[in-house]
Amino acid sequence: MPLIERVLDRTECTSLAAHRERGGGKGLNAALRLEPSAVIALITASGLRGRGGAGFPTGVKWATVAESAALRAPWVVVNAAEGEPATFKDRQLLRMNPFKVLEGALIAAHAVGARRMVVATKSTFRRELAALRRAIDEIEAERWSTEVTIEVVEGPSEYLFGEETALLEVASGRGPFPRVAPPFRRGVEPPSTDGANTASTAALVGDEPGADPAALVDNVETLANVAMILEHGAEWFRQVGSEASPGTIVCTMSGACRSHAVGEVPMGTSLREAIELIGDGPLHTRVIGAMSGVANAIVPEELLDTPLTYEDMAAIGSGLGAAGFLVLDDRTDVAAVAAGAARFLAVESCGQCEPCKRDGRAIAARLASLDGPTPDGDDVRELRDRLSTVANGARCSLATQQQVVVTSLLDRFGDALRAGPGRPQGDLVLEVLPIVDIVGGQALLETVLREKQPDWTFGEHDSGSAPVDLWPRDDMGPPLSVAEGNQQAAKAIAGVHDTMPEAMRPLVALTDDLRHDLDRLLGPGDRRDALHDLRSRLDLYVDVMQRIVHPLALRVAPGDADDAAWNAELSELRAEHMARIDEQGPFDDRAVTELVERVRSIIDGDESRILSLLEDRMDALEVDDLGTGVSEALTTSQRS
Ligand SMILES: Cc1cc2nc3c(=O)[nH]c(=O)nc-3n(C[C@H](O)[C@H](O)[C@H](O)COP(=O)(O)O)c2cc1C
Ligand code: SF4
């Protein structure tokens, strides 16, 4: 069965005109001709279910929120905060066609009687933010949204920001801390000025006069389905998928599969087939399991033929979640996967519920230090004990995720989770971290989170405090770096060269040469020669970057550039490291590898920064300026 193209466009749609050419606008027109209740009836009849993870029936949710419109007009909130490990589909949808998502949200606004819309996404999603803002400008200019005002909220990078009530807290100007009240009882409020965390205390909508309106929070993919249902009808939508899970599902595949990618398949496609179709099969010999992010029990090898539907995945004791699958193959170190998943959830827990943070910390610590069986099995007993209490009194599902995911790995792999000598474990370490981008078939991970402490600081030690007690804090953590520490991914980023405009070819050629020098340095040839070449090429690179690229970057994005750090890193590298290698006589292999890593990380970081400037900030003239400047600088530097 081939991949399908209903929701996820294969090529980028960058203008409203292009969206119209692809049939855009017809769904919104059809909706505006209908009474709001008829729109809700159509969505209900289609059987569309929320794609944010829980699979809740969309029509039922819309009807509930519409009821509150009699009191006050509700808000529509687009949940574009995607941050679960192994998931990238919402960002891919926004990159490919933000108009489709916004059109769905405008239809939702008509259906529930909303006058205000918020698109909530992470401030680090630069490419998606740029695409969204361009699309909103066009939609407003062409008066698609005369009845509805659209705002963009840029939120923090915490995983919990995607939890719908935490998202509403952020949209209300506070931290990403889940509330007790669901969105249809309490929506977006005016920002508080004291910065206090009121997630647990504020009233429910309608409980007192002047209370704030309710909100309809829907996932990006859910909304991307809506316009087509209005245009083609409920029966058309149901032509693929199952009775209880109609339509298609946009999956992300990463981990131990040959290609990391996002692709759309009909609901009901087996998980095994989806891994083949989207992920190009296992990296080594066979798939031993797949995890839907960090939200559901692992699907073991013998159940890989389970159809991707909400009901079939639930029937095997797992769940579809956001359909972002971390694939494990026969070489995967399952102990590292279990420890990574537990650590991610323990760190991201906000600490409003004591057991979630306390037991989560203990589970993660225990899994990280399992190094062989103890005679009386104390470690596993402690793990099971903590797992039985971690979700007690939990306000949101994060604590249950910890319980379900770790229990399933413990049940399935038992002793293999002990990472010590003589234990059955693979040599492929898969990190359980959110994806920041997928480049050249390789997911780039948010490796900066390796340093994040459970109190949400990036210091040396965990203070033991709950993040909710430390919020708001000035230090929001270091910015993301796509290249950082991820060698495999860093290699893949070389593939982005294809997207550089013609004017940038000289710079691309220079970085290609630099990468070639780095490969030579690790290869079998003469290292002193390779080092000599690397040094002069690096000097040329630094010269061009310092005189041309960085000043221009500062001009177009003053807040973004951190030239001081960049300069300090390079001076240190050149002064200490290269000199030391040069003087030492016989080469120290570790020092050479470290040098190569550091240079790679610098050029990868520069490259991704330049790319994002080219995409988001620079106009054609500035790009030409940059290209000419680089060519001239290269010529002068080479001459001198
Ligand atoms: C810890 C946590 C993180 C979540 N992150 C996201 C997210 O990034 N995007 C999303 O759409 N839903 C996320 N959800 C689910 C939302 O709370 C909510 O169910 C969803 O936005 C509803 O939209 P839907 O009905 O269209 O699926 C998360 C839930 C939890 C518990
Ligand atoms: S369950 Fe965990 S993450 Fe969710 S609100 Fe409670 S402490 Fe925070």
Shape verdict: globular
**Rg from alpha-carbon coordinates:** 26 Å
Total DSSP E strands: 11
The separation of the N and C termini measures 60 Å
β-strand percent reads 5-15%
Major sheet details: 5 strands, mixed
Q: Order the strands across the largest sheet as they lie in space.
A: 6-5-9-7-8
Tell me which ligands are bound.
Answer: flavin mononucleotide, iron/sulfur cluster
Q: How many distinct helices?
A: 23
Provide the fold topology.
Elements: H1 16-21, H2 26-32, H3 36-46, H4 58-68, E1 75-80, H5 89-96, H6 98-112, E2 116-122, H7 126-141, E3 149-155, H8 164-171, E4 215-219, H9 220-232, H10 234-237, E5 248-255, E6 261-266, H11 271-279, E7 287-292, E8 299-300, H12 310-315, E9 324-329, H13 334-348, H14 354-369, H15 378-389, H16 398-413, E10 435-439, E11 442-445, H17 467-470, H18 487-492, H19 505-522, H20 527-556, H21 563-583, H22 589-616, H23 620-639
Parallel strand pairs: 1-2, 1-4, 2-3, 5-9
Antiparallel strand pairs: 5-6, 7-8, 7-9, 10-11
Helix pairs in contact: 2-6, 2-9, 3-4, 3-6, 5-6, 6-9, 13-14, 13-16, 14-15, 19-20, 19-22, 20-21, 20-23, 21-22
This protein binds flavin mononucleotide (FMN) and iron/sulfur cluster (SF4).
Flavin mononucleotide is lined by residues 50-54, 56, 79, 81-84, 159-160, 162-164, 217-219, 222, 396-398.
